[in-house]
Amino acid sequence: MFRPGPRLCASLLALSVATACTVPRQAANIEAAAAGDAYQAQYRAFVAQEAEPPLLQSPAINAGKCRPPAGDAGGTGGGKLGRPMPYALTGELLTRGDLVDLRLPEDETFPGDYVISRDGTLKLPYLAPIPAQGRSPAQVMADIRRALVAGGYYDTEPTLSLLIRDFAPARVAVSGAVFEPRLVEIGGIRGDEVDAGRQAALGDSTEGRNLSVALRNAGGIRPDADLSAVRLTRAGTNYTIDLRGALAGRHFEDIMLLTGDELYVPSRLCFQDDLMKPSPISPPGISLYLSNLTQPATGNAPSAIGQTVREVPYGTRYMQAVIDANCVGGARISSADRSAALFSRNPMTGVSVVIERKVEVMRTRADRDDYDPYLLPGDSLACYDSGVTNLSEVMRIIGLASVVALLD
């Protein structure tokens, strides 16, 4: 049976020490992340710290790449910061699949519940189809009155009522500067959430078909979005909507969308720090991919890395996630040199980037915020133990191997 001799053990020990103390190479990136020419300027490499802490540079570097907001040059619509919202987009408008209730006093032929047809019209017995897609109940009701007189069913326009009984889901195409551009379905009943009382009542209303719901269902706006000129295309007509109020805590016209609408969010081609916060149109949160630590924990369960750690609010920064993942703290002599690597992706180009930060450097620098990037949906985080911890792990393995050799 082979037993390692003293010389071999010494060689293994020297090799292990050298391996434990070896500094890993810096990650190579296609984009010049270290020079600040990546999606976030916060990715750039550390610069020499001045005697007096300088003003933070990253927001200014990011803003320097921005093109002017397109909405400030004018448009056909807007919000609080732009032109008045076009009347055609306001109020509760009908779309195909909506359920309406028509009532005429002392009439047995026309009253009843009707569904707006797939072609966007309201079909009543004996009358030509009445356009309903994108119109208000009042506009459709006026057309019904005229049709009843024109058909000879009434001598004068009758008194009638047309109320919405239930709103159908709407399918909306969302593209541009959102994290998940796709066709989304918004509004309607979800799963077993059935409110029989509301469905039986007249005058239904919904917030589920709002513009903000469509943007969040498409992953939320990206940090490079130009909120001053969001484009809504409806029935071949383009409208420009200013949504900056949604991020500023001001009122904005959260209009109701219809099946067939198309939303396009343009890009300012830059990272905007002020968009990295929760809002009605931001991503609902971030699901992180976290690696396990060898030391001081052996897995997610003993580290208490559960769902609340892997899912963080939008606007969370790199160091907050590092602390949340138990990558910081412990014995200074063995843990102070710990580092963490962030794996991210430029949502405009699809190109990935990897950056690594020394935890203690981030803790001690006064300008730490300049190098503390915001987390984006789909980001991954890997923690690396210090050289002392690595060496102790290697020595533990050598010790186990020696015990096995002695027992053979």
UniProtKB/TrEMBL annotation:
<keyword id="KW-1134">Transmembrane beta strand</keyword>
<keyword id="KW-0625">Polysaccharide transport</keyword>
<keyword id="KW-0812">Transmembrane</keyword>
<dbReference type="Pfam" id="PF22461">
    <property type="entry name" value="SLBB_2"/>
</dbReference>
<dbReference type="InterPro" id="IPR054765">
    <property type="entry name" value="SLBB_dom"/>
</dbReference>
<dbReference type="InterPro" id="IPR003715">
    <property type="entry name" value="Poly_export_N"/>
</dbReference>
<keyword id="KW-0472">Membrane</keyword>
<keyword id="KW-0449">Lipoprotein</keyword>
<protein>
    <submittedName>
        <fullName>Polysaccharide biosynthesis/export family protein</fullName>
    </submittedName>
</protein>
<keyword id="KW-0762">Sugar transport</keyword>
<keyword id="KW-0998">Cell outer membrane</keyword>
<dbReference type="Pfam" id="PF02563">
    <property type="entry name" value="Poly_export"/>
</dbReference>
<keyword id="KW-0564">Palmitate</keyword>
<feature type="domain" description="Polysaccharide export protein N-terminal">
    <location>
        <begin position="94"/>
        <end position="160"/>
    </location>
</feature>
<comment type="similarity">
    <text>Belongs to the BexD/CtrA/VexA family.</text>
</comment>
<keyword id="KW-0626">Porin</keyword>
<keyword id="KW-0813">Transport</keyword>
<dbReference type="InterPro" id="IPR049712">
    <property type="entry name" value="Poly_export"/>
</dbReference>
<feature type="signal peptide">
    <location>
        <begin position="1"/>
        <end position="27"/>
    </location>
</feature>
<keyword id="KW-0406">Ion transport</keyword>
<keyword id="KW-0732">Signal</keyword>
<feature type="domain" description="SLBB">
    <location>
        <begin position="208"/>
        <end position="265"/>
    </location>
</feature>
